[in-house]
Write a structure and sequence with these properties.
three-stranded antiparallel beta sheet, ten-stranded mixed beta sheet, alpha/beta, globular
């Protein structure tokens, strides 16, 4: 077992505690160690960079209770019990990870478990592992740290072979953190793009599903910043160019789909021509995945793999759906999930959804994917069946999920869907999985790769329903995006070497929550025989009455409304802590995308890198540093 004498670092303790240094100089104490034994450990001082008292107590509240009672100190608990129980002494040494990555040490720890002096993971690492270059944490990469800090590498070389050689992790814990050096943090990345979702959409989703004083998963992400989505040629971010900026780290023209204004390859912020961050992750041997509730060529994910110009007779690159779909499949990411069977099958070939494909090049991309080793699934049951523990062969290595002929949702307005009629159409097509379910399976697949992974997920329904001013569709889509965020956050709880980033690029429709008090200070009723309206002051002309959306749209049964069978229905919030529910409606600014009302968020590994004001190019930077351990700089493309 590790003892105090092995863990304590005299130089560190003296440098971190000037009052102790003065006391030792006055000979009040023989050494820093003497002070620590008598006072320091009870004052919650750290004995070395390898033991972080605050971290240990924060991660182990049961120990904190005993410490506050004066029964034991944090270090005493770790030395007597914690190291044997596999508790971690700091944020950078992970006992489970160390033993998993070093099976010979795990075997030695197991063999010695019942002896009088059992070996522990942290003991081996401090005595031997750090000098042998053993992998000890997904939160720190020694090679990257030395690459980023050549002065540290030189210091290590100078002390090699001496009685007290320096190591990268020792330097980082003792000095590097305080000096603002990065710990060479590398890990996985999950990027979730709830397209068109601004704070108002999240606010309405929170009230509807979690209550006025509740919290969504989105709310619980640790870091946030105001997102600036300006393009190279306009204020408002477009779905395709916004995704290109996230994928390449540079500003582009508003109609770009992976190419510059001259239809030539873009150079990414990392300096690679025609290579997105997802391409680079794949080329580095990492697992990659794209997930979309829309069709596979939808820009939020498609632009991470596709780079196209307009096709014949087309005005905009994003219309070149067949070429984009082929590029996504040809890139061979580990997982592809979404709709879009139409664009994968040749003209005349009828697919699983009963309609014929439209590809004019004769290619059958689904058959090609199967030949390349993909397991193909078409619905929710088939997808979730991949996780069946009795499935022959276990979890597949590659998955292609084709869940709809076009999109998994029907993004028409409430009126077009007939939501207030006797025969309403569903918002999402029957049998299709949610993006949260797609992510759950995807994480099981990509986690099999020891080199790590990058996942790009888009819930496109928030944008499409928002642009069509379909309130219930928008909030349903936002809840589905939030469920996916929850899946990612729970994964990070178990795998802290993973970064989650979420951001839209603009806000669809300009949604606002409306909760009036009517005559006599009465709140909005749950139903109304007439559709509520809001007066809009348009200046000298008569005020424009804006119809308010409810649960089934902005309609109510009336003689001049044939087919409408019910009254206008308000949204009703989830009960708050007092059990109260609130009725509310939704008003819209219009149909387009609007800039300036987006919040970016991050959670997990390197989340603190997210600035409080987030340029759209910063999304690439934080993801890149997490995947590759390299901090990028450079202008934003203006």
């Amino acid at each position: 077992m590790l003892e105090l004498d092995q863990l304590f670092d005299e130089s560190y303790y003296i440098s971190q505690n000037p009052d102790v240094a003065q006391a030792v100089a006055r000979r009040d104490f023989r050494s820093g160690l003497s002070h620590f034994r008598e006072y320091g450990q009870f004052e919650k001082r750290n004995p070395s960079g390898f033991f972080d008292t605050s971290y240990y107590l924060r991660q182990n509240p049961d120990v904190g209770v005993a410490v506050e009672r004066g029964e034991i100190t944090a270090l005493q608990h770790f030395l007597r019990f914690g190291q044997i129980e596999g508790r971690n002494p700091n944020n950078f040494f992970n006992t489970s990870y160390y033993l998993l990555q070093n099976s010979d040490i795990a075997e030695a720890v197991t063999r010695s478990a019942q002896t009088a002096d059992p070996l522990t993971g942290i003991e081996h690492f401090i005595e031997f592992g750090q000098f042998e270059g053993r992998s000890f944490s997904a939160n720190f990469n020694s090679a990257t740290y030395l690459q980023q800090n050549p002065d540290v590498a030189e210091a290590i070389a100078r002390t090699a072979g001496t009685r007290d050689p320096l190591t990268g992790i020792e330097h980082f814990l003792n000095f590097g953190q305080e000096e603002g050096r990065r710990g060479g943090h590398v890990g996985n990345v999950i990027f979730i793009h709830p397209d068109g979702a601004g704070p108002s959409i999240w606010g309405a989703t929170r009230i509807l599903n979690a209550s006025a004083d509740g919290r969504l998963n989105w709310d619980m992400m640790s870091n946030s910043g105001t997102y600036v989505g300006t393009m190279a040629d306009q204020l408002t971010g477009t779905s395709n160019a916004g995704a290109v900026t996230h994928a390449f780290g540079v500003k582009v023209q508003s109609e770009s789909y992976g190419l510059n204004a001259q239809n030539q390859p873009l150079t990414s912020l990392s300096g690679k021509e025609g290579i997105t961050i997802l391409d680079e992750a794949r080329l580095a041997g990492k697992a990659t995945a794209v997930i979309n509730s829309g069709f596979i060529a939808e820009p939020g994910t498609g632009a991470f793999l596709g780079k196209v110009a307009p096709g014949p007779g087309q005005q905009f690159p994003r219309q070149n759906v067949q070429a984009i779909t082929a590029q996504v499949v040809d890139a061979r990411p580990t997982v592809i999930m979404g709709g879009g069977e139409r664009d994968m099958l040749p003209t005349g070939v009828v697919g699983r959804f009963g309609q014929a494909g439209t590809r004019t090049d004769g290619r059958n991309l689904i058959a090609e994917a199967q030949t390349a080793g993909y397991t193909v699934v078409y619905n929710r049951d088939e997808l979730l069946g991949l996780l069946n523990p009795n499935r022959p062969g276990g979890v597949p290595q590659r998955v292609l999920g084709v869940f709809a002929f076009t999109n998994t949702y029907d993004d028409r307005s409430e009126e077009a869907l007939g939501l207030n009629t006797a025969n309403p159409s569903p918002l999402y097509r029957a049998g299709t999985p949610t993006v949260a379910e797609m992510l759950e399976v995807t994480l099981r697949v990509v986690s099999q790769d020891p080199d790590g992974f990058m996942v790009v997920l888009e819930e496109e329904g928030t944008d499409n329903f928002g642009n069509n001013n379909n309130a219930v569709g928008t909030l349903t889509a936002a809840k589905r995006a939030d469920d996916a965020i929850g899946v990612a956050m729970r994964y990070i709880d178990r795998n802290p070497n993973t970064l989650l980033v979420t951001a839209a690029d603009s806000e669809a429709g300009g949604l606002q929550i409306w909760e009036p008090f009517l005559a006599g200070n009465n709140p909005l009723p749950a139903t109304s025989a007439t559709v509520p309206t809001i007066a809009n002051n348009t200046g000298p002309t008569p005020a424009l009455n804006i119809r308010v959306d409810g649960l089934t749209g902005s309609t109510a049964a009336a003689p001049d409304a044939p087919g409408i069978t019910g009254p206008w229905r308000a949204f009703t919030s989830a009960p708050d802590r007092s059990g109260r529910r609130y009725n509310f409606g939704i008003a819209w600014v219009g149909g387009p995308d609007f800039p300036g009302a987006i919040t970016a968020k991050a959670h997990g590994l390197n989340a603190e890198l997210l600035p409080t004001t987030v340029d759209n190019t910063d999304v690439y930077k934080i993801m890149y540093e997490t995947l590759f351990g390299t901090r990028l700089s450079g202008n934003t493309g203006f």
